[in-house]
Every structure is written in structure tokens, then in C-alpha cells.
Amino acid sequence: MTDGIIFDVDGTFWDTTFIVEKAWNAALDEMGLSHIRVTAEQLKGLFGLPMDVIIENIMPEQEKAVQEAYLPLCSRYEFEYLEKEMGRLYPDFEETLDGLSKKYPLFIVSNCQSGYIEMFLEKTGFGKYFKDYVCPGDSGLLKAGNISLIAERNGLKAPVYVGDTQMDANACKEAGVPIVHARYGFGTVEEPDYVIDRPIELLELDL
User: Fold this and answer.
1) Do 6 and 109 touch, CB atoms closer than 8 A?
2) How do residues 75-117 score in pLDDT, each as one tens digit?
3) Could you tell me the residue ranges of all domains in the chain?
């Protein structure tokens, strides 16, 4: 039986790609790179990767110094745009988290920049449901390492992870944690341990 549930954010809780598209393109414009465009569909295939890897995919022909300069700029624009506009939450998450939190401690591990999880929790009001969270921007670790870190510092012996992509599944395999595939999200997963098509189905799983 599981003793904790760890969640991904993008593609699992909400979809912000339509906002991030606008924010990141604004950052490209500021850098004089208007010939490079980012689309929401492109981002859906990249979210879940570390930020530096996403940027390498967006501008593979640019020098490393340009990619590194873009990272803090696109992050700043993203935060500014998300402050003004709410991402699209997947349905029934308030009810889902309320029910789950009565049975399990809940956590977040996402491959995002520092401050993003805090912003998500503030925008949604979901902070009251979560015991702990971490991202590479805080720890310097990637997802598998952060799953293990959350488990270690919270005394978890049998956590599960809820995510939407094969990258999540690969991290779970590395960390030795089962994955619940949020099939409504951005990606596919080969041989998941559990599958849900709506968030509220988490309440019905025998974890």
C-alpha cells in the first residue's frame, strides 16, 4: 500500500502551454530572435524535460551562450504572463485533492524553474493539500533524484508518482517508484503501473 502520492504539474494538473507560447515568443522578440517561434503544441511535446534541454530543442542552431541568456528571460516572461492569466486546470482537482489528502500525504516534483511550483500553488489555492515539493531549480537534481529526495526527507517507503509522459515514467523507473499515467495530459507512457483518464479516478485506484 502506498504511503504518499507525488504529482507532476504541467500536463497533470493544468495546461499552460497557450500562455507560455505567448510569453516565450515575447522573450524571443526581446532577444532579436523573432525568426524563431514557439507553439503550444511544440511545448506539449517538450514539457517535462529540464529547462535547458527544452531551450536546446527550441533553438538548436543558436550558440550555447544565447541559449543560456534566453533561459532567465523566458522564465521571467513566463511568470509575468502566468500572473495575469490562469492556466487551464483539468477538471475536479479540488475534489480529488481533498479526498486524497485525507488518506495520503501529497507532494509535488516537477522539472521546472525555482518559484514555479509556488506560483502554481498560489494561483490554484492548492497549497493546503501538499506537504512538500521540489524542482531542479531548488535542488540541482533532475526528476528521478527529486522523487528520491522527496521520499527520503518525508520518510516515504512506497510512494507513487502521477505524471503524463514517458519522461515521467523513465524517472519513476530510475527512482524505483510506480507511475500513475495521467492519460488526459500531454503524452503517452509504455506499460504504466496505473492509468487514469480523469483526475478524480485517483480516488478509485487501489494504491
Assistant:
1) yes
2) 999 999 999 999 999 999 999 999 999 999 999 999 988 999 9
3) 4-15+88-204, 17-84
Q: Going along the chain, which residue ranges are E strands?
A: 4-7, 14-15, 88-89, 106-109, 130-134, 159-163, 179-182, 194-196
CATH topology of domain 4-15+88-204: Rossmann fold (3.40.50)
Cβ contact 109:8 at 8 Å: yes
The answer to whether residues 146 and 163 touch, using CB atoms and an 8 Å cutoff, is no
Question: Residue 68: which residues within 8 A CB-CB, separation 6 or more?
Answer: 52
Do 47 and 10 form a contact (C-beta atoms < 8 A)? yes
Q: What is the pLDDT of residues 54-66, one digit of tens each?
A: 999 999 999 999 9
Quote the pTM value: 0.93
Q: Is 17-84 in CATH node 1.10.150?
A: yes
- Residue written as cell 529547462? 51
Tell me the mean pLDDT in the region 35-64: 93
Q: Is 184 helix (H, G, I), strand (E, B) or coil?
A: coil
Grid look-up 527512482 returns: 175
